[in-house]
Amino acid sequence: MARKVFFSFHYQPDNWRVSQVRNIGVIEGNQPAKDNDWETIVGGGDTQIKKWISDQMVGRTCTVILAGKDTANRKWINHEIVESWEKGKGVVVIYIHNLKNSQGEQSDKGRNPLEYIKHVPTGKKLSEIAKAYDPPYSTSKFVYEYIEDNIDSWIEEAIKIRKEN
Fold it and tell me: What is the pTM of this model?
């Protein structure tokens, strides 16, 4: 049975790369808001954005942060990570910079988004507890295959880590 996950990512530069991961099919993910819907959500301010994120997380067991070049330390990415952890969901980072975008381009690797989140009970960075995976290939096809082969076990491991912490 496919796990239901929440995908967290920086939309504008990484949507094409993210869609590749979402289409792998071993997991069931939240659907992104369409542009018109997102404008309505954003128009409601921070309260409406937080509500939308919270609603999207209902029934999800893990948050998968698909990290591109500029994903780390963004306001809403940080919020999604904190909310996920506080709600007892697994949290895992998967780097997607070496997947090609719609123009066939790869990008530079960004920082780990978990570096910016403090695990309050221990005072550690969440990056010291939760895991981040950087596929060991530079060819987009091999990166995709590596993610496809491993994403389900990474999600299961993230859920286990969260239960233990």
Answer: 0.93
d(CA 10, CA 67): 8
Residue with tokens 């590596």: 146
Cα 138 to Cα 113: distance, rounded to the nearest angstrom:
21
3-state helix, strand, coil in the chain (%, to 5): 45, 15, 35
b/e for 3-24, b at 16 or more Cβ within 10 A?
A: bbbbbbbbeebbbebbebbbee
pLDDT of 30 > 70? The answer is no
SS3 42: helix
How does the average pLDDT of the chain come out, rounded? 92
36 falls in which pLDDT band (50, 70, 90)?
low
